[in-house]
């Protein structure tokens, strides 16, 4: 094996498994047993194989994982790849630059601050990849410096000049003519000056507190009478836009330059020396006792303290005097490793204002979501409950409309006189949430409404507190989840009284109940009236709102109870089939060591494994004899890839209607197509979607739900999404054996997201054709 993995060598007894390239200590070339013909001896043999594989994997040590913090920065590098890609529309590239800047802000507020806390507490525990906290911080510093330097160059050398070529110019004060300056002088006095507060630093004015992520000017000010010189600070108010758009709509001026041009107004009678721009990032992770008597009050108090957290990063404009840099670092108690010189304007998250300019030719073509065909052909008005009594419905946002599916489902439940109850989880929702409005309306109409509002959704805590209060005022039963666990599942249960009793209707999704993000995040949802799934959700909500230890679910997988164990069982089931097995996972993150080791074991058994991981990925590919059948890709495009799809087993040949199953295939969309196929000598095909990634936080510290998809046509759609993700050569990156990501070369110009748009349009066209043919002749 390579020197990269240290002293790791082929363990004794390893033999190459024929045709797979993988080594296995037990098989030595014979195919594993699988299926009904397996004997007890076969089971013992498989257990021995599994144990030998695990011992070989553990012998590698921490080198079999990559660092999760550096993996997060790798995702940032992919954002920068898109920001400098000339094939991407210009303002979309500006958007990716803004996303990168905001991602880095959050990374320091949460991840770096957590490591700093560990160092301060003398914690020396190693991460899964073998690094102590201080070692991780050193590695992070070097990587961030590379990324920040690259960000500066992309913005200054690529984006800014290309924006200028199309009439969007980032102007500085010195380049403006008299008319432009008169306009900005007026803006300054009307909108800026009233909210500015200059603060001097001297014995009677101690160094002022610098709040989190605030942009500031540090100014040298002199008294011409006494000759005394002091340092002063001017905070750029966050209520003002980061860039001032000029009246022509084509030029923008950084806000700090407008303020700097008026320092003589802020310090009348003084001489103004040099000024520099800086920004501070602070620890913003909430810490509180969860067993408090009033969780909402505890979080509200902690939110007030968030802007006063310990400083973990100082950004200062390149060219600042060493004395100013040293003063700020000393007063803010920031170590040299956390001081970053920035050549581009600081806080490029403000580029969202540029992205919002009305220049459609510089954006991706706008997309209008389609109504899912089963809901579009269900009459006017649509009776969603009637549809779900006949068939399950899969919705894929933003290709399928969130408004005409999920929001319509909750709205119909709120207004339907036969609906007696609604239970819903809320993690992040929009500021004008139609779903929350429907829940309030349902309560006002006398229905039993219960919501689990997660108050600890990071950076949405204040908004969720507001929604929780509004819901409580309307009579909704609001609970805040379970102590020690965030409720991250995306679940809604509707209880409806019908002629033969109470029926349950459900929605289980991968994304938040948020109408705004549903237009820019790619997510999936299953609408169903399946009795087992409905009963499972009822048990889960009783667990969340009551006091119980329910662990026995019929169909759904629930973290932290069953998800990890069941996922590992499904991986091992494929491992038992060897090369006849198949695993494809589409996730946001894969960092859980137990799951990664199970995937290594399956690869050693010869199972082809494809992973589509948007963000954090700690698995290593190409370890000789261990992960040679694993391929990892990442897709980053116009929409944020956010869905989680789990495929275990191979797709049978032919169309879904022809797949073998217990019941005959019947034409149509209905549940008569449920029941996934079993093929001789192969493990059965099993497909899940849901809210959980394969990370410790999702498997151990959150309430998550995965749901099996069993309607064969819906399964075929999900497998199509996975196939397209693996075929994408427009917005894809691939992980190599050294842990580096490389852009997949464009050969076919196949884009996952463009293909899914075409498929959605095709379904809509077919629906319209059917409707036209069904109309009586005029």
Outline:
With 778 residues, the chain is α/β, with parallel strands linked by helices. Helices cover 37% and strands 20% of the residues.
Question: Would you mind describing this structure in some detail?
Answer:
- It is a single chain.
- The protein is of the alpha/beta class.
- It is 37% helix and 20% strand.
- Strands 16, 20, 21, 22, 23, 25, 26, 27, 28 and 29 form a ten-stranded mixed sheet that branches.
- Strand 13 (419-426), helix 14 and strand 14 (448-453) form a beta-alpha-beta unit.
- Helix 1 (40-60) packs across helix 18 (593-604).
- The protein is globular and about 95 Å long.
- The termini are far apart.
- 43% of the residues are buried.
Q: Which features characterize this protein?
A:
778 residues, alpha/beta, 10-stranded mixed β-sheet, 8-stranded mixed β-sheet, 21 helices, globular, disordered N terminus
């Amino acid at each position: 094996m390579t020197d990269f993995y240290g002293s790791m060598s082929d363990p004794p007894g390893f033999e190459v498994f024929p045709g797979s390239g993988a080594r296995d200590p037990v098989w030595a070339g014979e195919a594993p047993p699988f299926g009904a013909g397996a004997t007890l001896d076969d089971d013992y043999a498989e257990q021995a194989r599994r144990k030998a594989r695990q011992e070989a994997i553990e012998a590698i040590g921490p080198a079999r994982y990559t660092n999760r913090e550096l993996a997060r920065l790798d995702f940032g590098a992919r954002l920068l790849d898109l920001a400098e890609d000339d094939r991407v529309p210009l303002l979309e590239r500006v958007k990716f630059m803004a996303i990168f800047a905001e991602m880095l802000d959050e990374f320091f507020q949460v991840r770096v601050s957590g490591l700093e806390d560990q160092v301060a507490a003398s914690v020396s525990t190693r991460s899964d990849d073998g690094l102590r906290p201080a070692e991780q911080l050193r590695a992070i510093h070097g990587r961030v410096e590379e990324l920040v330097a690259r960000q500066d160059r992309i913005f200054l050398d690529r984006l800014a000049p290309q924006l200028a070529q199309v009439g969007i110019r980032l102007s500085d004060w010195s380049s403006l003519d008299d008319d432009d300056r008169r306009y900005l002088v007026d803006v300054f006095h009307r909108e800026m000056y009233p909210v500015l507060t200059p603060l001097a630093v001297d014995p009677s004015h101690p160094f002022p507190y610098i709040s989190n992520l605030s942009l500031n000017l540090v100014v040298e000010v002199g008294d011409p009478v006494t000759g005394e010189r002091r340092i002063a600070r001017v905070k750029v108010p966050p209520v003002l836009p980061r860039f001032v758009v000029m009246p022509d709509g084509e030029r923008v001026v950084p806000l700090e330059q407008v303020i700097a041009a008026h320092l003589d107004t802020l310090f009348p009678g003084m001489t103004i020396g040099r000024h520099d721009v800086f920004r501070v990032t602070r620890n913003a992770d909430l810490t509180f006792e969860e067993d408090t008597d009033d969780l909402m009050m505890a979080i509200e108090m902690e939110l007030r303290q968030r802007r006063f957290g310990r400083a973990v990063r100082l950004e200062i404009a390149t060219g600042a005097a060493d004395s100013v840099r040293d003063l700020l670092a000393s007063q803010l108690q920031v170590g040299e490793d956390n001081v970053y010189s920035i050549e581009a304007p600081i806080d490029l998250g403000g580029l969202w204002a540029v992205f919002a300019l009305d220049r459609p030719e510089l954006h991706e073509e706008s997309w209008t979501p389609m109504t899912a065909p089963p809901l579009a052909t269900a009459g006017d008005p649509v009776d969603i409950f009637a549809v779900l009594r006949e068939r399950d419905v899969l919705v894929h946002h933003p290709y399928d409309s969130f408004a005409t599916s999920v929001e319509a489902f909750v709205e119909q439940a709120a207004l339907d006189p036969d609906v007696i109850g609604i239970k819903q989880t809320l993690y992040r929702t929009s500021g004008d949430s139609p779903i929350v409005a429907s829940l309030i309306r349902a309560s006002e109409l006398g229905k039993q409404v219960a919501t689990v509002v997660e108050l600890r959704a990071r950076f949405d805590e204040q908004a969720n507190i507001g929604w929780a209060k509004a819901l409580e005022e309307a009579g909704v039963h609001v609970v805040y989840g379970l102590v020690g666990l965030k409720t991250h599942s995306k679940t809604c249960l509707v209880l409806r009284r019908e002629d033969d009793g109470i029926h349950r209707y459900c929605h289980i999704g991968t994304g938040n109940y948020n109408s705004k993000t549903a237009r820019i995040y790619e997510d999936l949802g299953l609408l169903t009236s399946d009795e087992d799934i409905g009963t499972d959700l009822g048990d889960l909500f009783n667990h969340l709102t009551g006091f119980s230890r329910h662990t026995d679910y019929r169909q759904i997988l629930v973290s932290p109870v069953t998800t990890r164990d069941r996922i590992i069982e499904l991986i091992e089931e494929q491992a038992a089939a060897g090369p006849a097995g198949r695993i494809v996972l589409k996730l946001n993150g894969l960092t859980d060591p137990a799951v990664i080791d199970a995937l290594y074991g399956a690869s050693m058994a010869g199972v082809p494994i494809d992973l589509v991981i948007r963000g954090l990925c700690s698995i290593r590919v190409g370890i000789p004899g261990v992960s040679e059948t694993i391929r990892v890709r990442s897709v980053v495009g116009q929409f944020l890839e956010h869905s989680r799809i789990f495929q275990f087993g191979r797709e049978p040949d032919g169309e879904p209607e022809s797949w073998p199953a217990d019941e005959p295939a019947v034409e149509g969309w209905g549940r008569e197509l449920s029941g996934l196929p079993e093929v001789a000598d192969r493990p059965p095909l099993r497909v899940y979607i849901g809210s959980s990634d394969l990370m410790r936080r999702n498997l151990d510290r959150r309430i998550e739900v995965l749901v099996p998809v069993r309607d064969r046509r819906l399964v075929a759609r999900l497998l199509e999404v996975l196939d397209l993700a693996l075929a994408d050569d427009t917005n894809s990156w691939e992980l190599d054996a050294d842990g580096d990501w490389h852009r997949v070369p464009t050969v076919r110009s196949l884009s996952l997201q463009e293909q899914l748009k075409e498929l959605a349009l095709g379904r809509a066209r077919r629906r319209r054709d059917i409707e036209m043919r069904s109309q009586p002749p005029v």
